[in-house]
Amino acid sequence: QTFVQPTTPPRIPQDTVITNVIATLHGSTNPERVYVVSGHIDSRATDVLDFESEQPAADDDASGVAVVMEAARVMSTHQPEATIVFTVVAGEEQGLFGSAFQAAAYKAAGTDIQGMFSFDIVGNSVQDDGSRHPHTLRLFTEGVPTTETANEAAIRRAVGGEVDGVSRQLGRFVVSVADNDETDMDIWMIYRRDRYLRGTDNLSYLNQGYPGARVTEPNEIFEHEHQNTRVENGVQFGDLLEFVDFSYVQRVAKVNVATVYSLANGPGTPKGVLILTQVLTNASDLVWTRGTEPDLAGYELVWRETSDPDWTHVIPVGDVTSATIPHFTKDNVFIGVRAVDQAGHHSPVAFPQPQF
Q: Residue 121: left if φ>0, alpha if ψ -120 to 50, beta else—which one?
């Protein structure tokens, strides 16, 4: 996927050809539903416009590229129900240019991307104080969608949902399928889009209204990122291979595969989910659009206390497109809907919009 990025001061001083690499594994029964996993292939030295100095990029982001490539290798021998896109993009360090072009192209084509993950800086398990965290992985997800309209913001202020955007539901799904003994990883979900002063390619997808998350190591060592390779006062600077924990990268790859395999072989996130609020009632009434999966078994309502971080209760309702919970007031709890297939795989939860 090659395009010309026009001059964009200060980081693109002249028209520049940028190339992303994409491998698409088409789904067998629901190929129109898409999930994207991404790393980035560009690097930089201390000066973002220095294209002469050595620019090793072992952690940022050869580690993420390796995770994407390994997931593609493993998954290529299978055919998931939905489509998985494995991509590595360029221009990230200069301003997310490669992913911005890519996400906009998918949006213009009407692609139904139901989840995007940026694996960026996933190779180091050591903190700058020397402590090790080899079984912890950070997952950044936004609560309020980047593309929220003024009307949607007004509704959210009235009824809540600050921690229930589509990306946050995607993050909760990741924890449910990839935080286990098989991956040997603890998923540390951070209620933010990304770190202070930083951002990566999931932002490009968020800007197009797609659900997205950033996956990264628990503690970064900034002397090993965006630095000219050198030694100062006995301290080694530079993003060198010697600082990569390969066993850690392997576990990150397991998280990647567990996540996208579960998403692509389960049902899609329910669409058109509404909670009916036209009249005052202590019942909770919800409606939604039935999915097109041939192995769809039905739906479940999930609910939690408004102060709980994740869904705690499940109510199976069957293969229907509406459900009522009598004597159960929507004013006191949060309620969502998820799909389930005949094998018992669940979709991410859809948080309802009120229908006034």
A: left
